[in-house]
């Protein structure tokens, strides 16, 4: 998988800025102004679905390299967010390969979307009010619930962040992680000693050398950093998450048809998992007598065509990339070195909060 | 709702004192040596396909290996994804309940406050035969092993009886489920965790079953969830 090779080469995923925000206020103001202009220029006339069909490729904005989410491995884009690009391309163009990946850093990602350089952003971006209200963007469904957490040595034998009273916590300077950690400890009447490090590599070194006995940043990054440790399994990420970092695909405002296609691509994969429709069970699913399965696979209802796709769009997506659980496990879960538990991203019916509206 | 949840619902109703209403079903479901709440799964639920561990339907074609002594640190061979760890887990079940999810090969011990201790498991074919609710009826350290006749038929080389110990396929501890032949047990084959294997029920590495054994008393509620059927 991309995780370990990425990390072993020393190229820590430093460009990622999931929640631990590095975007400056000034940059945001400029983006907001750009958003207003972009809206005037393209406005309600946006017909992204038709444009993508005419062009024959999907322009999909991804990260410049985040292990497990979007990274180039042997010249090929892979990852959880990349599979979402492939899923949309499959839904619209019936071919997961018809994606033009546009790597974007944290500063340029939203202006690229506003300016029409990409049709869709699938790049670890946190859904916030600012981004919808000021940047005039729309977030689709939350494909991955992230948030700030804590990594500790497994030998400490603790299972909750509430047991961290008096901990020395390593944190990266210039991020919001330090203040969130301080607030969390204060709110729970615990003492904290922050050990601040200038960069990600220093952060890992400090933790591994024992300068601190816990490390904090977003959970997905904790798992990514752990793959670079000498013995990853000797460290665990506690289940407590102290911030909300809902990540999902982003589109421009003013194109409801396209927004629907993006939303229902995710919901098709999620409903697929919930109903037991996977890349391995498609043949069986197509013969199912269950009404909800019949509607998902397009044998009833005519919903796909009404979206501007075909009635079997869910089948084609699941055939190409799998259902939500398959995509999760392959890229960041049990099938990857990251080994991130489904946790909060488990289906709502099985212990998590991933919930899709019904196909009917 | 999935049939799994419906089945559990029925079983719970029975446990809550509605035995008169569903006494027949209860007796049938919880009678000795029967599969609890036996809900037959469709053929193919335990497939012969071998796909990567973690993917749905990952199987390992391996028989029992009595006499094989696992390494002392038996978690060392495990994929990190299957090592014991506390996880986020939302449930309406009470703390102390065990929930076994056969499709993703995990056992959860509910701890309350949206968390659970998660253990990686291997699931033998017997573990796929039923879903629903049971209770731990007995606990045993280093259990003896008497392979049932159908297992002998599949693997004629197996001993008819094997005393408990490190080379015993039952592993270090066993938690017996109700009046059934099924149990949550250890293993002398730690590399089978994460897979569907040819025999046995729910297996954990010995260090994990020892940990779990120390946390759950007799009477603990055990919920088994199978993959949803099409």
TrEMBL record, chain B:
Active-site residue numbers: 185 (proton donor/acceptor), 201 (nucleophile)
Residues in the signal sequence: 1-27
One GO cellular component, as annotated: extracellular region
InterPro entries (alphabetical): LD-transpeptidase, LD_TPept_cat_dom, Transpep_catalytic_dom
Region (Disordered), start-end ranges: 38-77
Pathway: Cell wall biogenesis; peptidoglycan biosynthesis
Bilayer-crossing regions: none
Keyword terms, alphabetized: Cell shape, Cell wall biogenesis/degradation, Glycosyltransferase, Hydrolase, Peptidoglycan synthesis, Signal, Transferase
Segments forming domain L,D-TPase catalytic: 96-225
GO MF, one annotated term: glycosyltransferase activity
GO terms under biological process: cell wall organization; peptidoglycan-protein cross-linking; regulation of cell shape
Family, as annotated: Belongs to the YkuD family.
UniProt name for this protein: L,D-TPase catalytic domain-containing protein
Organism: Azorhizobium oxalatiphilum
